[in-house]
């Protein structure tokens, strides 16, 4: 039987992850993220995955999209750029059948928005930053498309292996669902 601490680590990544999950979940109940929910996105030709460091979540989403034959790129809001994917991302992505060895992080300042882009966001805090940077761009919180329907997808960087894989599988499921549900498959 798992201890409470182990359960929290496995399901939410950390105590901080649990608190953010609950906090942002309550805000979602009150409609705070309706503008970034699964919707009618017309004329989307590219998915742009965005997270903090562009070494875990967003490059994995990009890899899933590319495997599904849909154009994608990824960026980090708080990275310096040109860093490889995190070694644990490389390991677990490989176990799931994805090769991220050629990935190099890109800072969001390198992004040139296109009208046909859909920004795929991991956390509500990222959504707020992107609203300020790109107010007219279409955005979706990827967690809302996952099996758990959460608005907050905790960064797996400092989490245990169980949560790390769970996070990547959530991104994989949600990315495939996004491409399928919105008729984006080419």
From TrEMBL:
InterPro entries: LMW_PTPase (IPR050438), Ptyr_pPase (IPR023485), Ptyr_pPase_sf (IPR036196), Tyr_phospatase_low_mol_wt (IPR017867). It comes from the Bacteria. Its EC number is 3.1.3.48. Transmembrane segments: none annotated. PANTHER family: LOW MOLECULAR WEIGHT PHOSPHOTYROSINE PROTEIN PHOSPHATASE (PTHR11717:SF7), LOW MOLECULAR WEIGHT PROTEIN TYROSINE PHOSPHATASE (PTHR11717). This is protein-tyrosine-phosphatase. Belongs to the low molecular weight phosphotyrosine protein phosphatase family. Keywords: Hydrolase, Protein phosphatase. Residues 45-181 form the Phosphotyrosine protein phosphatase I domain. It is an enzyme of class 3 (hydrolase). It comes from Alteromonas aquimaris.
